[in-house]
Amino acid sequence: EMEQGFAQAAERDEALRREFQQQIEGLRRETQQQVEGLRKEMERGFAEVAEQGEVLRREIVRLERWLFALTVPVLVGIVGIIGMLLQIMLK
Question: Rounded to whole angstroms, how far apart are CA atoms 54 and 61?
């Protein structure tokens, strides 16, 4: 009878060990899936930031060209006005 009790206890222990191991494996898989999901979200976020950075860079280049295109005629106009004023003053 004692041997049967020990055998039953050993079977229960083994069943509990297997159940515990299955739970641990399930938690490991769940954790791995969460980590993978977070990694993919971060990659998407980085890609979006890189894309926004490129759009911003192109916009800055466009604005620089526009400002340069606007500045040159203004400077030429100012030089012309100063030239005319000098001619008037020197007469």
Answer: 11
Q: What is the dihedral of CA 81, 82, 83, 86, to 10 degrees?
A: 120
> If you compute the radius of gyration of the chain from its CA atoms, what whole number of angstroms results?
39
The Cα–Cα gap between 91 and 32 comes to 87
Give dist(CA 21, CA 33) in Å, integer.
18
- Is residue 60 left, alpha or beta, with left meaning phi > 0 and alpha meaning psi from -120 to 50? alpha
Q: What is the model's pTM? A: 0.53
Tokens of 70: 């606007």
In degrees to the nearest 10, what's the CA dihedral of 41, 47, 52, 56? 150
3-state helix, strand, coil in the chain (%, to 5): 100, 0, 0
- Confidence (pLDDT) at 1: 79
The DSSP string of 4-23 is HHHHHHHHHHHHHHHHHHHH
